[in-house]
Amino acid sequence: MDRRNTFSFGPSEEEKNSANFTKILKCITQVIAEADWIFQRDYHCNFYAEIFITSIAEQHRGCGLGKEMYKRMLPFLKSKGFPVIRSTFTSPKTRNIARGLGFHEMHRIYFKDQKDEQGRKLFPLAADGNEEFINDTAIVL
Question: pLDDT tens across 17-70, in order?
Fold first, then answer.
């Protein structure tokens, strides 16, 4: 897939340097790669906005900032000519925001199933009964 025509937002330097971020980045990259064929099949689009990672500082979470950010981003990106937005979501709260705004899930991977190069669980606290996941989504503007 040609990613030259994407528009991405990124994490802060502090987030980039955390061990947890490295693990999550690996999973986000995986879910996007696994969903590429679904994206092409369903959206027939090489020019799209990709919202790769967004984050709200912990002290400001729960105030509606994430929802407001996405509500403002959608018309902004549409005004820039992007016909489709693709985004990954790692938490139940952001997935609910996305669903409410009309994003459609293409693919998901579960934290409990992710392993490192030695075959060890990448997220040891994600027990077998834990259904937390990262999903790749898209919305047509």
Answer: 677 788 888 899 999 999 999 999 999 988 999 987 787 888 888 898 889 999
Whole-model pTM? 0.81
DSSP state of 61: T
Is the distance from CB of 110 to CB of 131 less than 8 angstroms?
A: yes
Helix, coil or strand: residue 125: coil
**pLDDT per residue as tens digits for the range 90-109:** 888 899 999 999 999 999 99
Using an 8 Å Cβ cutoff, are 134 and 111 in contact?
yes
Q: Give the Cα separation of 39 and 61 in Å (integer).
A: 30
The contacts of residue 32 (CB under 8 Å, 6+ apart) are: 86, 88, 136
Give the burial string for 30-42 (b: 16+ CB within 10 Å, else e). ebbeebeeebeee
Strand-pairing partners, residue 137, are 87, 105
CA distances from 44 to 4, 82, 83, 99 (A): 16, 13, 11, 21
Domains and CATH numbers, the chain: 13-140 (3.40.630.30)
